[in-house]
Amino acid sequence: MVLINRTKMIVAGVATMALALTACGGSTSSSSSSAAASTAASAAASTAASAPASTSGAPIKVGFAQTGSESGWRSANTESMKEAFSAANGFDLTFNAADNDPAAQIAAVRSFINQKVDAIVMSPIVADGWDGVLKEAADANIPVVLEARTVSAPDTLFASWVGLDFKKEGVTAGTWAKEQYGDTDTKMVVLEGTTGSAPANDRAAGFDEAIAGSKIQKIDSQTGDFTRDGGKKVMEGFLQKYGADGIDLVFAHNDDMALGAIEAIEAAGAVPGKDINIISIDAVHDGMAALAAGKINYIVECNPLLGELAAGLVKDVLAGNPVEKAIFVEDG
Ligand code: GYE
User: For the whole model, what pTM was predicted?
Assistant: First the structure.
């Protein structure tokens, strides 16, 4: 996908790391995470603060089509979105989680169009297949803001996108892998995210690019759908096929799949982080705990706190303010 007019929104690295960790930390995190998210939002070129809630003073009707609840990252993201699109902030939010089913997500967006919401926000499960319903939204004059995942449809069909640089996350993970393991023969298996999703596509591409020319050999790669269960099942299959001795390294496209892999590796009598090394992406609470325990060797952060930025974009778009097509939030 070609994103034009790329603007990189730089959030101070330390602040970003702190907010991601607090955000993923669970129940006590909401006040600190929203404060941190506000910091992030105020660093953006355009924010909600200046735009009126709506010209009539009525709440802004927003339909948010979330992927589902596949991961710890997603829980933190949903919390951030619900906080930002609150009644107190001038919104009337209809939330839909599609349980990782692309057809159900398209149906949810279509129902938002029928309900004549003021704006649609979505985190597209997969990148392809959106042209039709995005055209329907455009015909109905309902702006669409994408968050966290991108689509392959032309960027004239949506107002803006806010998210992370998934390719760069893959490159960061792959560069570390190459430095650590690239000089010796290393047999690697990959736990892919949801097939056809932007983060799975781009993380794979970035990682492969970074390890090119090293002695890391990808012996197998399968989707675990970004879930802990999926990661566990796929890893069990790999262990059966290659044996624990036949696998040196796991690259998991997110922490949840790495956590599932840890369970499978331990059940097979091997030591995760030692017999089989693990690299993942997200830095959710449980992932960081596994990193601290030495069961995961390296994690690349992926910031889930996109709510304030997404809400600011919606207000700007509805107020007719110019917005960037793509806003990249910096990972740590
Ligand atoms: O990394 C993964 C989640 O779209 C960036 O989706 C997000 C990814 C995240 O399920 O854990």
Answer: 0.86
